[in-house]
Amino acid sequence: MNTWFLSGYTEEARSLSVRKPSNYIKTGSAALMFDYVPFFRDTLLKLKFGTQDRMHAMIQNRDSIVDWAREAVWSGWHVSCSCKIGADNDPMAVLDPECRVRGVEGLRVVDASAMPSVIAANTNITTIAMAEKVADIILSTPS
Ligand SMILES: Cc1cc2nc3c(=O)[nH]c(=O)nc-3n(C[C@H](O)[C@H](O)[C@H](O)COP(=O)(O)OP(=O)(O)OC[C@H]3O[C@@H](n4cnc5c(N)ncnc54)[C@H](O)[C@@H]3O)c2cc1C
């Protein structure tokens, strides 16, 4: 492993995400250089994140990985799967395949938490699609 990219949501990252022409130029040209000019990529990674020695030291030291995770990792904006749908024999499945809460009468959960695994798409439209699907199921279920 020779490339690493430990990132955090820093003030610098925040300011680069503001929509304005100078940021388009900065991020667009950096992305091009990053992809096509290995020297640029390697130098930038070294300047921003340190040398490979630091990476190798971290890999061998669990405490430094834990420290980094505590400092830099955050939940992001696409939290999901904390109350997942699953088969009857899945002990982690809070919900049955029609989003009924197992063991509770008359209660369903239909939101991003019901996703059985982290999706390879954005969560908003997927959550809406799940809600429409389960609304149809509820409406077609005789009461
Ligand atoms: C800053 C940000 C940016 C995002 N950008 C995108 C994006 O670009 N594209 C994308 O696909 N996804 C995006 N997401 C993720 C997306 O918004 C969520 O995955 C999606 O909204 C999840 O839907 P949900 O119904 O599970 O939860 P939510 O949309 O969070 O709905 C939960 C609702 O429950 C309400 N609520 C909470 N507690 C109570 C209570 N006790 N009583 C009554 N009501 C309560 C809340 O007010 C809220 O309205 C973003 C998320 C964030 C935070």
TrEMBL record:
UniProt family annotation: Belongs to the GMC oxidoreductase family.
Highest taxon, organism lineage: Bacteria
Pfam families: GMC_oxred_C
Family annotation (InterPro entries): FAD/NAD-bd_sf, GMC_OxRdtase, GMC_OxRtase_C
Segments forming domain Glucose-methanol-choline oxidoreductase C-terminal: 53-131
Protein name in UniProt: Glucose-methanol-choline oxidoreductase C-terminal domain-containing protein
GO terms assigned for molecular function: flavin adenine dinucleotide binding; oxidoreductase activity, acting on CH-OH group of donors
